[in-house]
Amino acid sequence: MDYLFFIVMLPLLAGLVVGVIPGDRIGAIRGVTLGASWLTALLSLIAFCSFDPNGGLQFVTEWTWVESLGLKFYLAADGINIGIIFMGAVVAFAAVCCAGDVTHRIKEFYFLLNLMICGILGAFASMDLFFFYFFHELALVPTFIMIGVWGRGQNRNYATYKITLYLSFGALLALIGLIGVYVQTGAESFSIPDLMKAVEEKPITESAQQWIFPLLMFGFGILVSLWPFHTWAPLGYGAAPTATAMLHAGVLKKFGLYGLIRVAIPMAPVGAQGWLEVMAWLALANLLFCGLVAVRQKDLNLLIGNSSVAHMGFIFLGIASLNVIGLTGAVLVMIAHGLLAALAFGLSGHLYQQHRSLDMTRMGGLLRKMPLAGTALLMAMMAGCGLPGFANFAGEITIFFAAWSAGFQTITVIAAWSALVIGGLYMLRAIRNILHGPQGDDWDNASDAKPLVATAFGLLLAMLLVFGFAPNLLTKRINGEVEKIVRLAKPEGAAPEKVEVVRR
Amino acid sequence: MGDQLKFVQLEMMVVALGLLVLIADLAMAPSRRRLLGYLSAAGLFVVFLLSFRDGYTALVNESTEAFFNSRYKVDGLALFFKRFFLIAGIFVLVFAVDFSERLRSGMAEYYSFIVFALSGMMFAASANDFSMLFVSIELITITFYILVSFQRHRLHSLEAGVKYLILGAVSSAFMIYGIALVFGVAGSLQFDDLHAQQSELIQSKVFLFGMLFLFAGLAFKISAFPFQVWAPDVYQGAPTPTTAFLAVGSKAAGFVLLIRLLVAAVPEVTAEWTSVLLVISALTILYGNLCALPQRNLKRLLAYSGIANAGYLLMGIVAQSEEGTVAILYYLAGYLFTVMAAFMIINLLTKEGEGEDISCLSGLSKRSPFLAFAMTLAAVSLAGIPPLAGFFGKFLLVKSVATEAFGNTCFFVLLAVAVFGVVVSIYYYFGIVRTIFWGRRKADEPTPPPVTIGLPVRIVLGCCVAAMLYLGLLPNKPVKWAETAAKVGVTSK
């Protein structure tokens, strides 16, 4: 038992405690959840700081779960997931801070919220593929109920079903791929280190890889809203309550990308050969198409949702380049985007709470009304279009270098253009519509963020800036693990590339 | 012969219990007949405990050759299923007592018929010979004709009874015809003999034809496509305890016989028929799930979901491996507790024959948080989502098929269909969850009062919930039990 065990189990414990507290004691319920998530975030900060970049797997908890199938309850951190877990715990804390907009059936909401946090953190902390999947699905049921019961908008029922069915379908496709990996390696184990070792000794047969990779790519791809399977995302986030949208868009969605880096690439590199180019083109479609869709949005939530889908394109592009800087950049963007998406949805949630509407054409001049939240929104929008100084820029520029050197020159040019021009277009327009100009109708009663919510925004912004100015806090941890994966995937070209670019 | 009867001691006790109930009924005042149901449930529980006695479990290692000439097997598989049926029987009896006011007459007979059907299932668990197979199947089916049409004052119940009778008789005819053909070619009714000469037998078209008829008969029992037509009407019309027993017991009896026949006795025939079984499994999954989509009647919905589940279970047979058998056993165990809980809750919420509409669940989270919790778990488990029993069962089934899939691409088609089916099923199972938590009643309807639940039903529901969580969260031991049970061999001569 180590930090990770407590990081995963604290939310579950908080959920159980919430289950026992009588439903009318709202303060106690909120307090317990807030306290637990604060402690989780603190623990993850300690874990992140005490993580040794050259130490391999750390903070290990390993229990045999089903002996005859080789299933283990196996929590551990390495360079790739430590950063994601840290980001996840911070986002979870921020989400709990912003959950004040829920006003009915509070006990149930906080119970589900805790369960969801446990699932999310567990998924990224698991080194056993079965639990990796298990925790992800565990987070899915609360998502469904939370959107359905506490969601907003006319078509939340439709959105609920859409998000659930899409995500289940993706997860099941990926599950078959994962089982395929298990069966084909012959490792008799679901644990990622064991599987890596087995593949290193004897790779999976080529014909099997031809099945496994597409299964994983599209399965995980649907979970990450890879174009053209992205339509659930803006809709679902638009209908979700603030905390759910923050957690899902920020953290849970990264599950698929994490799975691609962790499992699909190292286990089926031969199968990946033909598909990586397809992935790169689809990534471009994400960037370009969803970016253009975002330009047309009038609803702030749909804008953020679409831009979040567009940003996934960077990460897919980084993975498709399949070199050390590409994968490092991908992980970097995953973390940066997690913080950013959580911040953006937290802010839109705050605005919605003020006025029950997110129609951008009827906003305006809100920077005067709410200096704190307005500034946070401004900075979030800037981070979203890749302003240097925010962590997103560090990751995105790395990915452009990687994609160029991997031979996707055309794609890189179009992607860079779409990211800068289209991204800039809709982000700046949103800033003008929402924050500047004459004040919109009916916004007189709007008030600024309360201290708790402001803390959440501040925390997320601070993290974005810290990782933006010092990305090597992350890259020095990520690098070693990514090198191992690239070596497995491309044994011939294992020349150690350095990620000097991002060390400023 | 006398000391050989130890092999059937459990079955003898169960039959004796059934007779005792009938006799005790004569001496008992009508007002106290509920007690009779509880007593017989307690009696079955004692039998269940006795099945763990060392003296009995030691029989697994003893050859039954001397007894009945190997026509009757007491092995791990038989033991697993006997306990399975006993648990199902206990639950159904408690359920039936709760239901008994709606029967109007013949309560004690109802209890005793449940016990007799149970004995038939327990015999089926050990059947290793066509005559044994046929007799035990008929014992189950004939008692079910009566159990299904027990509410004589309800037209639906009678209709269901007639449907089940006619289609059941047809399937029995199929089966007996098949047995005759197989006997004509093989010259023996014993599975062991078939196993010994299967490579020659497989050459004979007549033999394969006979096996196909046999399979059709068993497919009727498990309600696999295209022999599923009876299920929705019968499930809907039958008294709810009967429906639950039919869904769990009858289906499991069909599967134990399929395992004995297709996996243990003639695996070569199964291998030859891989594509046929695969197509049947896929179509069953599709039919069940797609037809369940528009259903509003909960019992009917569960009937279609039962058909879909038969399709999933068939995946374990298609895999043709010990792993597949383990998966079937595990899935069935999870299914028992899940479906039993679901039917019990539906029964608590509905009045006779009416209000089985899905809307009866709306507002349940306020009326009875415990029932809402249990029903949610049941629906989520049936949908195959962790951390519940249904997920681990489906995981094992998918894994057993995926293991074979890299040698045979057709299996990927089955996997694709299964995935599609699960996604479709999530839609309607989550529809149940949705109704429980945020379904709205009509404005003019008064909010129904909180549900009262008797203690025995509460205990049974508690057991179901605990078992669903246990099978989903701590599968280590249950998987080992299933693995011990799945080692079905055939006594070589």
Model description:
The complex is a heterodimer of chains A (504) and B (493). By secondary structure, chain A is mainly α. Chain A has one domain. Helix content of chain A is 74%, strand content 3%. Chain A has a two-stranded antiparallel ribbon with strand order 1-2. Chain A is globular and about 65 Å long. Chain B has a domain at 273-493. The mean pLDDT of chain B is 86. At the A-B interface, β1, α5, α6 and α8 of A face α19, α20 and α22 of B.
Q: Give the radius of gyration of chain B.
A: 22 Å
Main beta-sheet strand count, sense and barrel state of chain B: none
Secondary-structure-based class of chain A equals mainly alpha
Over all CA atoms, what is the radius of gyration of chain A? 21 Å
Q: Any idea what the shape of chain A is? A: globular
User: Ranges of chain B with pLDDT <50 over ≥5 residues?
Assistant: none
Largest interface: A-B, 38 and 30 residues
Q: Supply the helix-strand structural class of chain B.
A: mainly alpha
Oligomeric state of the chains present here: heterodimer
The main pleated sheet of chain A reads as: 2 strands, antiparallel
User: Based on DSSP secondary structure assignment, what is the total number of beta strands of chain A?
Assistant: 2
The number of distinct β-strands of chain B equals: 0
Number of helical elements of chain B: 22
Low-confidence region ranges of chain A: 494-504
Give the rounded overall mean pLDDT of chain B: 86
Order of helices and strands of chain A: HHEEHHHHHHHHHHHHHHHHHH
Helix content of chain A: over 70%
Distance between termini of chain A?
37 Å
- What is the arithmetic mean of pLDDT of chain A? 84
